[in-house]
Amino acid sequence: MMMLYLWLGFMYGLMMCSLTWKCVNCSEFEHSQPLPLQDWNNNVTYKAAAFAYAYARRTPPLMVGLTLVNAAASKGAVCLDGSLPGYHIHRGYGSGANSWLVQLEGGGWCNSIRKCVFSKKTRHGSSHYMEKHIPFEGILSNKNEENPDFYNWNRVKVRYCDGGSFSGDSQNEAAQLYFRGQRIWSVVMEDLMSKGMRYANQALLSGCSAGGLAAIIHCDEFRHLFPRTARVKCLSDAGLFLDVPDISGWRTLRYMFAGVVMLQKNYMCNLLQGMQKNLPQGCTKRFNPIMCFFPQRSIASVRTPLFLVNTAYDTWQIQVSLAPASADHHGYWNGCRKNYARCTGSQISFLQGFRNQMLYAVRGFSRLKKNGFFINSCFAHCQTERQDTWFSPGSPHIKSKGIAESVGNWYFDRAVSMAIDCPYPCDNTCHHLVFK
């Protein structure tokens, strides 16, 4: 019967090549005023497989409730608006009973008082606006056929509400803003340790986008929570933000990150103590904290094994960092920003240069055998959280390996996992993002 469903789905997909697939997790674009997602690429093979998968998968994803950390307030570990932080947890069982996967939510940054005040009224600044239940899919799925290596682990999604990748420790009394990301990180880890994580023999810290950056920043801290005998590693998805010039020659992302770091300093001491002390010290000894907010300068100094999942043409970086509207006064990049298929030859050439800079950024990182990476040539952002890109029929591959298998091979030391895709447009397994 299952084969019949798959065959029917495949045939239907071939006939319905204009089928639209919509994004269900685009929160990472909120602070940059994104374009709404319209469709995936016109890859008929992918759409047929995706339809077959959706048709065969009739059970809905696991919905997991929100847990607020009641002890957080007394420690000042609060969201931007002063509300309690929270997380979603689903318990492991069997062989995964003492294994823990902790995923840090993404959602951009607020780099000005105005933007942070706005964030206070969203789920990325207040637990009052957070969903009470969220689906656990992709790397958080509880189904063996969707998440073969981690499905029966204790799986946790930590909600993001501090605007600074879980790394600030200050406040702005005039605007009633609390930049307490580091305290949120600490109090959530304490709470999880009290709920059994202290007994873990295996642990993986992951995150996507701003959460992927946070996973890099806190990777070694996470390792120190466990005994040396435990297998502890970290995974950053779409967190390799590059300090590179945009199409006008201006460094837009550096300016944005400068706002985040400077906004979250400790005004009482007039020193950069709010965030600087929480960034990787191996980096801050050599660079100022703004530079160290870019992971390209810190990944090689992370002592804990680290895996990077990133696209060489990250759509968030294209829209917000490489070709933002502020740098495109004549609208030359409007079409390319929305749809990779509308990029001109010169625009693709510019994006190939960005890919080259990403490969250069991981050069030193790749010399350390403990590390791993999966850098594919897709126009996408965050691939471990979505089921279609993490592990499903037609999911993105580099050669014969998909993302879930590559991460699993690296985590369990089954094989060296350092995969770099050929340049666009050679990869026909991509799930490209296209915007209206």
Q: Compute the number of helices.
A: 15
Estimated share of beta-strand residues:
15-25%
Stretches where pLDDT falls below 50 for ≥5 residues? 1-56, 267-273
Mean pLDDT: 87
Shape: globular
Using only C-alpha atoms, the radius of gyration works out to: 21 Å
Number of strands: 16
Structural class: alpha/beta
Determine the fraction of residues in helical runs and give it as a percent range: 25-40%
Biggest sheet details: 10 strands, mixed
Oligomer: single chain
Quote the distance from N terminus to C terminus: 38 Å
Sheet with the most strands: spatial strand order = 5-2-3-6-4-9-10-11-12-15
Signal peptide: 1-26
Organism: Populus euphratica
Pfam families: PAE
Main location: secreted
Describe this protein's structure.
- The chain has helices at residues 2-15, 44-56, 113-119, 181-194, 210-217, 219-223, 252-263, 281-284, 289-292, 315-322, 334-338, 345-361, 363-366, 387-390, 403-411, and strands at residues 37-39, 62-68, 86-90, 99-104, 133-136, 154-158, 170-172, 177-179, 202-208, 231-237, 306-311, 372-376, 397-398, 401-402, 418-420, 434-435.
- The chain is of the alpha/beta class and 436 residues long.
- A hairpin with a 4-residue loop joins β7 and β8.
- Residues 1-56 and 267-273 have low confidence and may be disordered.
